Amino acid sequence: MNTLNSIQREAVQHTGSPLLIVAGPGTGKTRTITHRIAYLLSHHIAQPEQILAVTFTNKAAEEMRDRLTSLIKDSNVLKVLTIKTFHALCLDILRRDVGPVGVKTPFTILTEADRGYLIKSLLPSDCSLRKMGDTISRAKQNLLSPGDGRQDIAGDIPRDLLDRIYEAYQRTLDEAHLLDFEDLIFKVVRLFEGHEAIREKYQEKFRFISVDEYQDINYAQYRLIRLMAPSTHDLCVIGDPDQAIYGFRGSSVRYFYKFQEDYPTAKVLRLEQNYRSTETILRASRQVIGEGDVREGLWSGIQGTRWLTIARLPTEKAEAEFVVKSIETEVRGISHFSMESRKIDTSEEGGERSFSDFAVLYRINEQGKALEEAFIRSGIPFQRVGKAKIVDRKGTAQLLFCLRMLEPLGCGLDRLEFFNRKRIQGLKDGLNPLKITLKGKTVREKLERIYEGVDLFVSGNLKMY
């Protein structure tokens, strides 16, 4: 508690009514939430199994759990706490209580690659796969079933086409015991709406709920929280309406502003001390964003460079070279290439910095490629965050599909013959002989045999439709 400022301490110690924490960037959101959970436990206000913390990403959940490890010494208590993303929480609920909403078990979560293949197999040739996929996701985020689609959801896709594709897509998922990512929250909301006993069971189980980044929730997530946390619950939500960035995914900041209407007894606190940025950065952010309610009072007391540099350059390549030069100047031109070519003036004042002190942000992936090339040319070590996952790379999905055909799990798209025929041509003749040789083998022997037959996958015989 000694590391908290007075407003953070007030948020940590507040109990007995819902709490809305308006927290600007760098004001210690995670620190406040984790200290609050630790306070509830250490003062015996809550039992570990009564606490639920919901985040948007696995990384945020891991960070929250890591910080709690330093605050709570009893590892058994940490194991009982529920700290999950919205989707992981709903997956757990469905595994326990899926029956009443008509989901067949065992069910499988549809991968994004398989989802794309399935939607494409249902679409007419002149319809955009991405647009249809996004529209179906948006419908589910708004808790709309096939046939419920509003025109504002459909956009420029004809309503009858959307209804037909959405209905066929959902029917296929049901037949194959599959759920897509958006189904997880959709199904749990329907479960809680239609089955009071199940809803009350989870309300009783999780009496102390914390929600991170509340400004980024969509309608389905909003309904989930409202169903799980009635006004009598100890609900704490934290976020910054100026940082609402997921509107393209269906989120809306209006649910953040609606919190006091939903919970009239809620207390509102504002975290305004920034621990991350200099006063120069904060003043600049106010100029860019405007004098909003949140940032108007934001302060740090951290002094630093008085000016920001804005460089207008003709090309992405020129931008990348400018970034390289700026970094090399700060680290005193460690790159031999830059010194020999006199790309920088080593007489310039530079700080005692290392390459790990720098982060470069860019708007689109194409800019990342130009930066990578510039760093490689200059010999600057770097790592790029957010590159495509290996499972999303071309060819990987096809290979995984082949492996599932060799060793089927008994559920999913592998069982849909009409889909498989369209998806990969000439597959059966190539895989059947290999499949026969796997019978009776151990897992290790199967993997070795598949590895020996890997030429099947690269011979060009497997053609995606």
Write the layout of secondary structure elements.
Blueprint: H1 6-13, E1 19-23, H2 29-42, E2 51-55, H3 58-71, H4 75-80, E3 82-85, H5 86-97, E4 108-109, H6 112-122, H7 129-141, H8 151-154, H9 159-175, E5 178-179, H10 181-194, H11 196-205, E6 208-211, H12 219-228, E7 234-239, H13 254-257, H14 259-262, E8 267-271, H15 279-289, H16 316-330, H17 336-340, H18 365-378, H19 396-406, H20 417-423, E9 424-425, H21 427-437, H22 443-452, H23 455-458, E10 463-464
Parallel strand pairs: 1-7, 1-8, 2-3, 2-6, 4-5, 6-7
Antiparallel strand pairs: 9-10
Describe the structure.
The chain is built from 23 helices and 10 strands. It has 465 residues and is α/β, with parallel strands linked by helices. The chain folds into 4 domains: 6-92 and 186-271, P-loop containing nucleotide triphosphate hydrolases (Rossmann fold), CATH 3.40.50; 108-176, Arc Repressor Mutant, subunit A (Orthogonal Bundle); 316-378, no CATH class; 391-464, no CATH class. The strands form 3 sheets. It has a 6-stranded parallel β-sheet. Helix 12 links the parallel strand 6 (208-211) and strand 7. Helix 1 crosses helix 2, helix 2 (29-42) packs across helix 3 and helix 10 crosses helix 11. It is globular, with a radius of gyration of 26 Å. The model is unreliable at 460-465 (pLDDT under 50).
